[in-house]
Design goal:
The protein is mainly beta and 802 residues long. The chain has eight helices and 46 strands. The strands form eleven sheets. The chain has a 22-stranded antiparallel beta barrel. A five-stranded mixed β-sheet has the order 10-15-16-13-14, with no helix packed on it.
Amino acid sequence: MVRAASIALAIAGTAAALPAAAQERATEIDTPAAPAQEATRLLARQGRISIGIREPALARLPVKAVRGRYTPAQALERMFAGTGAIARRVATASFIVERAPPPPPPRPTPRPQPSLPPAAEPAPADIIVTATKRDVPLADYPGGAQVIAGETLSLAQAARGTDLIESRAASVTSTHLGPGRNKLFIRGIADSSFVGPTQATVGQYWGNSRITYSAPDPSLRLYDVKSIEVLEGPQGTLYGAGSLGGVVRVVPNAPDAGDRSAQLWGSVLATQHGKPGADGGAIVNLPLVADTLALRVLGFGNIEGGYIDDRARGLRDVNRVGTLGGRATLRYTPTNDWTIDLTALGQRIIGDDSQYADRVTDGLSRASTVAQPFRNEYWLTDLVVRKSLGAVEWTNSIGYTGQHVFEQYEGPTLPDPLRPMQGPLEGAEPTTYTQTNRIGLLTAETRLARRGANGAGWLIGASLLHNRARVSRRMGGPWLGSALTGVRNNVDEATLYGDYAVSPLAQVTVTVGGRLTHSRLGGQSRDVLEAIALRVDPGAGDSRSETRLLPSAAIVWRPDPRASLFARYQEGFRPGGIAVRQDFIQRFAGDRVSTTEVGGRWDGRALDASVTVSHTSWRNIQADIVDGFGFPTTANIGDGRIWSVGLSARWRPLAGLELDGAIYLNDSRITEPAFSILPVSIGAIDESRLPNVAHRSGRLGFTYTSTLAGGSRLDLSGYARYIGQSTLGIGTILGRLQGDYFDTGLEARIGNDRRGLTLTATNLLDSRGNRFALGSPFLIRDQDHITPLRPRSIRIGVDLAF
């Protein structure tokens, strides 16, 4: 890996990020005659773009009303016609309003020329899927995808982190052990409820950098983002290992060298049956050198008051969670062809106690003898450089992420910590078990991409990756307790990948691609003698290599300008590794999925709709289960298959009103269990389903925007979600039911671009539900736990912009 890291550092000088997502298309625009600041704010929301105004005087300039179906560029042209100002495009889906240049001096009147027909109005621009790494219009993308515009996210929603993505994208699900230690799943490809040494099934990216590998979802807060893209998997060709279920990519807002601005916000939160909370933050954009160098800084913090009582310890509202974080990005654009971004990001989550309750009580209390706190500390640094070579874009990047996860659980005392194969005795005294996971991930990538019409184009790239994960476990406390067997896993990957898309016919685009990955795996036991740790699998500590070729193919047919049909085949994989099982370590093999998918999209004047149907074959499934006394371990549990159907639609019956709905159906089964290699403690396997993914789920939502007297706006939004029934995990012990609940929310904001007052209500029905049927894995055999929804909560917030 030393050589790999050297190569990664060598290309750091030209490292770069993917451009921000474009989200401009023809849509219904309804803006009144008003000051430019108010009218452009409403247009930005309706057209899902960013609009800056250079001078305060221009912000007060009266502009014309615009009503009809236009692209944002067309709407801006009509809005500022005859005002002495223009809107200039400065980036994809970004405009700056500035004074119009003086007219040129008059020229001699030319001779009359024959009249020509009027120029055709420009074709509507499309929503662009940038996670494809070569900017493919959504209408031409052959697969399930969803793009969430950052303009549509309120501050209250952004504070929810990854929970927001789960609530907006029906194909995304998550465990709910607690923020900073959950797992994400897409399209029903779910392996387990625990975060062990296995690689995640979902690839998570912040801009151009991967943010997880064999680690939990850090639940980064989604303040100040440009867009969120969800690509249903597998995505092996573009993203390689760990994208079996798909990819979630968050695109943050970039610094703007032409805009000096700031935003502040704060709120208070009242939770029924619990303690209050609060959140606040600030965003500052500073041009350092006009049109060349800019800095954008974000800082935030929030406190979520607890609502779980502990009867045994006589404590109320024990599960308080605090989050503190921020990020800073420096953007340098020496010429129109070069863009250089340097980013630093950090976030810390501290949970005072676990969030579970007893199923047999009121759903908001439990009896435990000790506190069970958790902590997630996450940081990311990356350098990205992009060079435009005409129609070709060259992107290089290098990034490093670190994550430190600490968890403490209650469980029965082992009679002899040096011999953990002897399980706890009946009636054993309770004690604490701790697990500390330290992960470091270094990635580097270089690629060339060309975008053509109708989704055509090509992409070629190479990447290097090094991931190191160290797990330490103790009984009796994090410092004074007895050490239990730990493990270290190292993975090095070198990859070549690419795809090529061509349009043999005007209405057809065919794409073929592939990825060749060479992985080197290694690891060893920690905190115990190797003779003990290797007694079952003596070769577990040996290094080994894997080489995988992942092919892909897709076709898109556009029988109508508003409609497209597609079919796709793609594969994905995860390398193997080493897991601890009680006091010994043992290897587990890599797994692989192959998916065939068909679907279609409709992009009409008032209605957008999509449908996808997919079949996935999953071989040699890796799953994190619990070992003989409660710690997560990993085993290959056999082969399986998954059928999934997704339907979604958005309807705009009136200007300013949008209704949305989605349904996701899933049927997953283990077809060939691998009983011979499973630990005895797992018990019998329920072949009817894989864990944590409901057979059915759905969402209904709405947004409404109206201009009030005096130039203020009213923004309303709401949703209702149903999460169907699922199981906690694999086997008799973990086969506990969860899910089958409704989640609701409503939000209203009154204000303008400079100030606003927001009222948000969640869990309107004050329902308990059961998001996750796990409290402490060491008590799962004897106790029945649930993780309830946060009770009905009301947030009142204020935001100011300068």
